[in-house]
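Summary for the steering committee. One of the milestones for this cycle was to obtain a three-dimensional model of the protein with WQD bound, which we needed before selecting residues for the alanine scan. The sequence and ligand used are listed below.
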Amino acid sequence: MKKTVLVSGGAGFIGSHVTVELTQAGYDVVIADNMSNCDETNYKGVCAILGRQLPFEKIDFCDSAAVEALFSRYTIDAVIHFAAYKAVGESVDEPLMYYKNNLDSFLNVLEAARKHGTHVLFSSSATVYGEPEKTPVTEESPRQEATSPYGNTKQMCEDFLRDCVKAYGMHGIALRYFNPIGAHPSALIGELPRGVPNNLVPFITQTAIGKRECLSIFGNDYPTPDGTCLRDYIDIVDLARAHVCAVTRMIEERMDKPYEIFNIGTGRPLSVLELVTSFEKVNNLKLNYRIAPRRPGDVVAIWADPTLANEKLGWKATRTIEETLASAWAWEKHLAGRA
Ligand code: WQD
């Protein structure tokens, strides 16, 4: 029998890619989103890629009655929870908004999952490691005190899941994403930042298309080979496939323990300058950029040791940085053609 996965925040950047990969792997997917941070672009793109309409439920996960009703309406085998606010800077200015939204929504998911015997996958972040003492980071590397309410909600939600699994006999997995970038090869779904992008790749593509005048590279005097920060940029389709592996592991009861954590990254550090140069080369263009002061709060260098995910999930990042950066550019051009 086909298994059903509920994807909260399924109309967003990561949720839409995960929906495509799950469906192509043979799962039935229910997309649920309150559309507070996106429009219908990605939902329509998902349906176009798959060639059919998927069930879509407009709900706010902070509404506990609505969440419970949703879990009663469908037989849901696993839920993947993406529905959350995600702007680091905004969370510093609006901590209550972030705590209320990101914590309440996940508590409601946990409550319904407990009642209905649903497996839970939580979308966590490498941000929980802060500035690591040792790189690459493994899942055993210590978490550091969060530097933003956003980061704090990721840590707190991991703990909620851990404790619920322990107390209620549930099963849960937290995936810690490194830096998700790129877009689906069809260029029909991708990242849609609101206003001026905070993240590097959307800023690059918007500069290349002429929406922004100049990319600022935040600092070139870091203690790294070329002086710019090091990150682990993970292709969005590779990242999405990790969710299929993790959901299947839960549903097929192949977990080593009822609560597991996996790093989802490539294991390959890349500097900001290397990324910019790759983008220029693969897309055959010149990017207008300048060196600017450091951005407060930036971690100097972090990348994943993805061995655990490779071995236990049977997952590995496969797309090259060139393919990924070409897909990011194709998506930006798709958006420009549409406008
Ligand atoms: C990457 C590198 C910047 C923009 C953040 C969150 C994390 C996660 C992903 C999301 C850094 C540099 C960036 C620019 C630049 N959360 N940069 N010029 O900071 O690693 O992670 O996003 O939902 O929790 O903290 O990603 O893409 O912002 O930055 O030079 O215009 O690019 O300094 O070194 P980051 P990023």
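Key point for the committee: Residues 95-116 form the longest helix (22 residues).
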